[in-house]
Amino acid sequence: MCTGKCSKCIGITLFPLAACAIVSNILLYFPNGRVLQLSEITDLVWFFHGILGAGILVILPAFMMLGAGGAGCCANRCGMLLSVVLALLGFAGGAYCAVISSLGLIGGPLCDTGDGEYLYPFRNDTLDDNYLFNQTAWSICKEPENIILWNIVLFSILLAIGVIEAILCFIQFISGLTGFICGTCMRKRKTNISGM
């Protein structure tokens, strides 16, 4: 496959992933569909890993990948070089999202344990008694309702999106570097001059 076509395919794939990451990150602000006080929202949500990391930092390279993969001024070595630089930016955004999502899964949510005070009941757990593997421990969180399941699902989605985006941007980095060094495989249109 030509490096230009590869860039276009990756660029098209990154758009829905970035949109899902932005939506998932926004949903983390509204556990179980409820509006909470700012002090009652899990701290790692404020790192904007889905909005900024897997969202905006990936949409920018996706636009360039579409340009580098299409015909026109971007389908040249300079366009491929710029797509390499932006692919690194996208890789960093996807990796950032994956790291913060992993920390969110490991640390658990901020919740009310029944005494009206919001705290992180699972932050000091070891991997052996981690709440992820012990569903009976979920009952410790009373408010917001279903906060643990809400956080697990959304942080898992963001983790998967971040990893996929990082892999795709790394592939684009290799493809763009190849396109920059070897050319983009753009075939010149052959014209029939014998009929003139």
The arrangement of helices and strands along the chain is HHHEEH
Q: What separation lies between the terminal Cα atoms?
A: 35 Å
Number of discrete helical segments = 4
Give a short account of the largest sheet.
Answer: 2 strands, antiparallel
How much helix, percentage-wise, in residues? 55-70%
Mean pLDDT: 86
Unreliable stretches covering 5 or more consecutive residues: none
Assign the structural class, choosing from mainly alpha, mainly beta, alpha/beta, alpha+beta, or little secondary structure: mainly alpha
Strand order, main sheet: write it out: 1-2
| Radius of gyration over all CA atoms, rounded | 22 Å
Compute the number of strand runs: 2
> Tell me, what's the shape?
elongated
The percentage of residues in β strands lies in under 5%
Features:
mainly alpha; 196 residues; 58% helix; elongated; two-stranded antiparallel sheet
Structure write-up:
With 196 residues, this protein is mainly α. The protein has 4 helices and 2 strands; from the N terminus they run H-H-H-E-E-H. A two-stranded antiparallel ribbon has the order 1-2. The model has no long low-confidence stretch (mean pLDDT 86).
Topology at a glance:
Elements: H1 3-27, H2 49-69, H3 77-107, E1 111-112, E2 118-119, H4 147-182
Antiparallel strand pairs: 1-2
Helix pairs in contact: 1-2, 1-4, 2-3, 2-4, 3-4
Q: Quick summary of this structure?
A:
By secondary structure, this protein is mainly alpha-helical. The protein is 58% helix and 2% strand. It contains four helices and two strands; from the N terminus they run αααββα.
